[in-house]
Each structure stands twice: as C-alpha cells, then as structure tokens.
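Moderator note: this is an archived Q&A kept for reference. The question asked for a predicted structure of one protein chain; the sequence and the answer are reproduced below.
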Amino acid sequence: MQTATIHQSTPFRVLHLTTSDDGQLPNDGSATETLQVAVVDGLQVARGTDPSDADVLDAGGEATVTVDGVAQSVSLTGGTGSLDVTTTASAGSTIRVQATDLAEHPAEQSDVVEIEVVSA
C-alpha cells in the first residue's frame, strides 16, 4: 500500500479589489464608485507582499464579482478590469463586494471590499 502526502498549495493568482475613491457612495442612484479588479501574483502575496504591490499578471477573460450577493462579470484585459457601482440604498448601509472567480485560470484567493453608502 502506498500513501500520498498532500501539501497545502500556494495560490498562483489572487483577485485583488480596490475602490477608485474613498470607499463611500452617495445614494442618489447616479453617483458611481468604480471597482478595480486585478489578477495579481499569488506567490508574491503568499511571501508577504501586499496585494496592491504585487505584480499584475497578464490574464484575460472574465472575473466574477459579487455585489451584495449578486454575481456580475468583469471583462479583464492585461490582468485588470473595472466595474461601476451605483445605489439607492439607505445612508449608513454597506455594500459588500467580493471577487469570487476567474474564468480561464484558477484563482484561489479573493478580496472583499466594503463601500459605505452616504446621504446624497
């Protein structure tokens, strides 16, 4: 009988999310907060590099981002893409955004950002 040892894997690609502004979004339904999605080098992140400082990998295709539980596709070019978010939610609420999937490549980690809804 042979046994196999499984070692914990290190993610090769990490989906990194950032907001374009201050992370606040007026609830007038027309103001936007732009989310940036980047596919970054997971090995650098695993070694301690902050995802915002890690190299962006040249990945294309689609990334899936959930905005308050609703999946949305983001087209990637050269490893990056963006998504505009608007809202009419009540002031004081929070919009939770998570990068969940990368269509053509494995991505083992994902970022979460929160956008605070403020009065218009």
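Archived answer notes: The beta strands are 13-19, 24-26, 33-41, 61-67, 70-76, 80-85, 94-102, 109-110, 112-118.
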